[in-house]
Amino acid sequence: MIRTRVKICGLTRVSDVEAAVAAGADALGFVFYPPSPRAVTPEQAARLCAKLPPFVSAVGLFVDAAPEGVRATLDQVPLDLLQFHGDEAPDYCASFGRRWIKALRMRPGVDLMAERARYAGGAGLLLDAYDPARAGGTGQCFDWDRIPPEIASSVVLAGGLDANNVAEAVERVRPYGVDVSGGVEAAKGIKDQDRINAFMQGVRDGDTRR
Questions:
Q1: Which of 59, 123, 141, 145 is least enclosed by beta carbons within 10 angstroms?
Q2: Overall pTM > 0.85
Q3: What is the CATH number of domain 5-209?
Q4: Own/partner pairs, 167-174, CB within 8 angstroms, 24+ separation
């Protein structure tokens, strides 16, 4: 059986890192975007990453960050993967010598096949809902039928996922992975262990129906 990978994003507390790891998350995301309520400093992220066991990846989320800011973060935080969530060009994404993925907000008219070709140097695409006022963490879903079936197995699906809809998302889209933040929170930046566990069970349920 193909297993859908899970990234839990927006971690700010040691207890939430431990809960996500215990639930079986494959990757944890740390937000380096000061306007976000889930933002952490490099110092905070370094302390959180120190709690990660082997084979759980640390992902750093950046939004149109100055290159020197990204490099300063990398000097302090042992990130395995960079996630670029703004309007970054492919050359920028590739300039830091780390594996990276490009997040695409599913605004009207976006051509996923063209964007996939444009960002072919990355490890994959993360697809999120579009909100003109926010770069991510909208809590909204987009129309999953907009994802071409031929690329679905290589994308990470985000946007409004929670324990109530993730099984359907996994079954219908068949993505490589799913990404959740607000859908497992008690408050912004504060994760809830029961919701994390329920989300992970939803992913497993979806996998059995793929």
A1: 145
A2: yes
A3: 3.20.20.70
A4: 167/202, 167/203, 167/205, 167/206, 167/209, 168/206, 169/144, 169/206, 170/4, 170/202, 170/203, 170/205, 170/206, 170/207, 170/209, 170/210, 171/206, 171/209, 171/210, 172/144, 173/144, 173/147, 174/2, 174/210
